[in-house]
Design brief:
Strand order of the largest sheet: 3-2-1-4-5
CATH topology: Rossmann fold
Largest sheet: 5 strands, parallel
Distance between the termini: 37 Å
Radius of gyration: 21 Å
Oligomer: single chain
Order of helices and strands: HHEHEHEHHEHHHEHHHHHHHH
Number of helices: 17
Structural class: alpha/beta
Number of domains: 1
Length: about 375
């Protein structure tokens, strides 16, 4: 039986883990409230003061270096706002853009405007296209849901490595509770799981991944333990209203909207607008709009009106469909065969299991660690 949350637009379509209380409110609302209580600041002045203190530490530690921090820059709203906040705080970030071959012309133009007007340096990390295409095709053939995991994995791994090479200790992250907290577990897979990526590619890939930037637990321990790398989710320290920020960056940089979250990438637009709803019955707008409801930025009525709009402009879909298939080297028949295959769980392939499962001897140590683990400071989130 169909059921929708009484507060948001989350429902039980393609979400086996959703639950509702006696008032019909879904679990995602309560999860949002818990995250907001843990990471956000009710008093904007308090959050900004804390952020200035963090910036002062970063500036002090970065003296004598070309850059005192590093950040990813996609040209989307979140990363653009992080760049603006960084300059406002007096930081000297190195902006890193990950080019996986799917940038839209608009994204390239937005990025150019941002770095020129803010006067920050840009490092574009261009991945080996043949390897990345083979990996994307492997994920398509595997019929797993989180095809974007390979891009996210490579972005984080690249940031760590570039930070290490340039002796930068601080990452500025655009991850935030206000617009990115809600996402059903069945719609995604852990981005850091290099074992799952290799397992899927081993079965369906055709060429070696000699240059793909893999990140495993050992790599993370090196960068965060030895190199003392740290990450700050900058946006969690400010009151983040997405529409106001869009107007701000439009005025500041001549920024132009992509029409959807992460639609600066042609592939992401096609994946979220066509593959997910057609093959997996997933409409990610539900999660994005629900976060805006939970954070008080829009009403449920406004969200429902947005959901009535087509998920994909028909003309744009036809253009993207032809472009994606040509770029991936797929015929329409081959692609439709892939789309017709039933979804397969990521867990049908090998995956990175917790250390205490792989090494049972560590279980007592894990219990001790949990008992003494320090509480995260307000505003901080995991990468």
């Amino acid at each position: 039986m169909y059921r929708q949350c009484t507060l948001s637009v989350m429902d039980n379509i393609a979400d086996p883990d959703i639950s509702f209380d006696e008032k019909g409110i879904c679990n995602y609302y309560y999860e949002y409230q818990q995250a907001a209580e843990k990471y956000l600041f009710k008093n904007e002045a308090e959050g900004w003061t804390k952020l200035e203190q963090i910036a002062s530490t970063i500036i002090e530690e970065g003296k004598g270096k070309p850059y005192d921090c590093i950040m990813g820059l996609s040209g989307g709203v979140d990363s653009t706002y992080v760049a603006l906040l960084a300059k406002k705080l007096g930081l000297r970030p190195l902006a890193v853009h990950f080019d996986n071959g799917w940038n839209s012309e608009l994204a390239v133009k937005n990025i150019e405007n941002i770095v020129q007007k803010l006067g920050i340096d840009l490092h574009t990390n261009v991945i080996n296209w043949q390897e990345f295409k083979d990996l994307q095709l492997a994920y398509l053939k595997a019929s797993v849901v989180d095809i974007e995991a390979i891009t996210d994995h490579a972005i984080f791994a690249s940031l760590y490595r570039i930070a290490g090479e340039k002796n930068i200790r601080h990452i500025l992250s655009g991850t935030n509770v206000q617009t990115e907290n809600t996402l059903p577990n069945s719609w995604i897979f852990p981005k850091a799981d290099h074992i799952n990526i290799k397992a899927i590619h081993k079965k369906f890939g055709t060429i070696p991944l000699n240059t793909f930037p893999f990140m495993n637990a050992k790599v993370k321990r090196y960068y965060f333990g030895v190199k003392k790398l740290s990450s700050t989710s900058v946006i969690n320290y400010v009151h983040y209203n997405k529409q106001k920020v869009k107007r701000l960056i439009q005025d500041e940089f001549g920024w132009r909207d992509y029409g959807g979250k992460h639609y600066e990438s042609i592939w992401t637009r096609f994946y979220q607008g066509y593959i997910l709803p057609e093959k997996f019955k997933i409409d990610k707008r539900k999660a994005h709009l629900s976060d805006l409801i939970f954070s008080g930025q829009i009403t449920k009525h406004e969200a429902l009106a947005e959901m009535q709009q087509p998920i994909y402009n028909e003309t744009q879909l036809k253009e993207d469909y032809d472009f994606v298939l040509k770029k991936l080297g797929l015929s329409a028949e081959e692609f439709q065969k892939i789309m017709a295959n039933p979804p397969v769980s990521h867990y049908a392939f090998d995956y990175e299991k917790p250390l205490d499962i792989r090494y049972p001897v560590l279980k007592p140590i894990k219990k001790i660690y949990r008992a003494i683990k320090p509480v995260k400071k307000r505003g901080e989130t995991k990468l």
